[in-house]
Backbone:
């Protein structure tokens, strides 16, 4: 499981449209997961928890997005609350320009070919391509109750955090309007948003 700490459609997929405005979700004030999500994702706790159904039989298809775009300098952090040892790989986190209301959810966020930046292992992916290697601790090494987060800064940098500590700027030139994205993948079986 993973927990998201919060404050105040995919490119290359048919029918997906970039976001231009905030989208309403079903969670409490602040960040929450949108009710529309990947095929095997299940959203509970008023949008604060997301899990991969059949986590012992399936390793992907559990992509979740925030219900609203991230604000400048807003930390979006998740805590892993359930893991399974069966699979290779683990949680992936990042941002996308695609609105969860219209997005056709991919089996994994790293399959998207436009408008998406994801931290995967210890690499940074942009539109499905590796653009940076050996960036910080591998997310695949995170275990139960550890946290990972991202922040889009006011000047367009995407900053990675692990267990509350800033790792650094992963990539620059991030668009102003992006949604937080978590791929509940591999060994990561559940995440939950945690209040600040």
Residues:
């Amino acid at each position: 499981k993973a927990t998201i700490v919060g404050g105040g459609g995919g490119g290359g997929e048919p029918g997906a449209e970039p976001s231009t405005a905030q989208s309403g979700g079903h969670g409490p004030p602040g960040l929450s997961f949108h009710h529309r999500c990947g095929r095997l994702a299940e959203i509970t706790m008023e949008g604060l928890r997301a899990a991969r159904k059949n986590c012992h039989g399936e390793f992907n298809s559990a992509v979740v997005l925030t219900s609203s775009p991230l604000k400048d300098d807003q930390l979006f952090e998740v805590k892993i609350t359930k893991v399974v040892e069966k699979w290779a790989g683990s949680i992936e986190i990042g941002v996308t320009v695609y609105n969860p209301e219209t997005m056709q959810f991919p089996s994994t966020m790293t399959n998207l070919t436009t408008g998406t930046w994801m931290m995967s292992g210890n690499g940074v992916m942009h539109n499905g391509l590796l653009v940076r290697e050996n960036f910080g601790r591998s997310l695949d090494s995170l275990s139960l109750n550890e946290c990972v987060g991202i922040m889009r800064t006011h000047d367009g940098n995407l900053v990675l955090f692990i267990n509350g500590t800033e790792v650094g700027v992963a990539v620059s030139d991030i668009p102003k309007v992006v949604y937080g994205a978590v791929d509940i993948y591999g060994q990561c079986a559940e995440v939950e948003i945690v209040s600040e």
In short: DSSP finds no helices and 14 strands in the chain. Confidence is low (pLDDT under 50) at residues 1-28. Residues 156 and 164 are 20 Å apart (CA to CA). The first strand starts at residue 2 and ends at 6.
